[in-house]
Amino acid sequence: MTDTAQSDDVLGRARVKDNAELEAYYNDLAKLDTGALWTVANSIEPWQPTPASAPVLWKNSELRDQVLRALDLVRPEDAGRRVVYLRNPKRTEVSAACGWLFSGIQVMRPGERAGAHKHAASALRFIMEGAGAYTIVDGHKINLGARDFVITPNGTWHEHGIAEDGETSMWQDGLDIPLTNALEANFYAVHPDDYQTTNLPLNDSPLTYGGPGLLPLMDKWDKPYSPLMQYRWEPTYEALTNYAKVSDGSPYDGIIMRYTNPITGGDPMLTMGAAMQLLRPSEHTKAHRHTGNAIYQVAKGEGYSVINGQRFDWKEKDIFCVPAWMWHEHCNTSSGDDACLFQFNDLPTITKLGFYAEQGLNENDGHQIVKTN
User: Fold this and answer.
1) What angle do CA 82, 184, 294 make, to 5 degrees?
2) Sheet-wide strand order for 319-322
């Protein structure tokens, strides 16, 4: 190492000055597939988290037509999943949208049906538009509506389709494929019969577990993920508006509620979490940053977010990401209506590993200085 940052020139950090003898030593170590820790220590042990992703905004007005083009170019039977994935410019090598999270937009026509498969990665859906869409997760068939949040936990057989009398439908997919691959733990399998068969009642999951604060007395659910596989938009929005009547909410996120497993109170799946937040008319939150990555979709309204000093203006169905440890704040630009942001994140993984940290911005009354081009 020839250059030592000023902040690293302290006891406890690597600050060895190179010379010819050391260079020869490093070459000899390399021949044995080894190396001197002090040559890499400061880069692999940073003073604080160093996000590898860039903040990105994917506008629905620009993406929608391109996603619809795939309908005439690729059959779901051939593509496996007809998805246009969101590619972070700094994470192209792992096909990630942010951090170790994958995201994409899937589209299907009425009468189409994608084959059943399963994988070690966890997956979720947030429905953007259409009618007649459904999913089948381990035999549980569920009808889907706009702004519904749906889970397909790791290791479960799942497939999606659109009823013959439905409408062309589109939804955001979210998966932890990059994380699962980084851990070298991914598996993938296609259903031996191509599609699932089931004798379970339609919508049995939300009808059984969707009552707020209520669990069936005969419940015997023993899976590590939520038995409630669909979180409908209408009760979610009602819960947010009710909560707003009795709470000021978070200074950083407004009125925010986390989707939970109704049995455990924990996250719906092991590795990914999700939340919905409501920004009241003209509300502008303060900035904070935390470990963990988040991908947002605008469920309602319009406004902007400032991420690491960069302003991103958004409206309904736009998607944007907030990489780990980047300052972020949100603003609802409407003075007469609320705005809602759906997010999914890797916080369950971060929290289980003991890595969660958060910091609020104290300067400038908690707001970032927006960079100008």
Assistant:
1) 60
2) 57-58, 319-322, 294-300, 339-345, 273-279, 255-258
Give which of 167, 195, 156, 159 is closest to 71, Cα–Cα: 167
User: Look-up: residue for tokens 């707020």?
Assistant: 212
Pair 266, 303: CB distance under 8 Å:
no
What is the residue type of 204? D
Token readout for 345 is 């994140």
- 249, 264 Cβ separation under 8 angstroms: no
Cα–Cα distance measured from residue 61 to residue 240, given in angstroms and rounded to the nearest whole number? 27
Rounded Cα–Cα distance for residues 132 and 171 (Å): 13
Residue 183: C-alpha distances to residues 100, 166, 179, 234, 349 (Å): 11, 39, 6, 37, 12
Burial 263-284 (b: 16+ CB within 10 A, else e): eeebbbbbbbbbbbbbbbeebb
Residue 6 CB neighbours (<10 A): 6
Sign of CA dihedral 261, 264, 270, 274: positive
User: How far apart are the C-alpha atoms of 140 and 303, rounded to whole Å?
Assistant: 37
CA 83/CA 174 separation, integer angstroms: 11
Amino acid sitting at position 359: Q
Q: What are the residues facing 358 on neighbouring strands?
A: 290
Start-to-end Cα distance in the chain = 35
Q: What is the pLDDT of residues 172-222, one digit of tens each?
A: 999 999 999 999 999 999 999 999 999 999 999 999 999 999 999 988 999
Confidence (pTM): 0.95
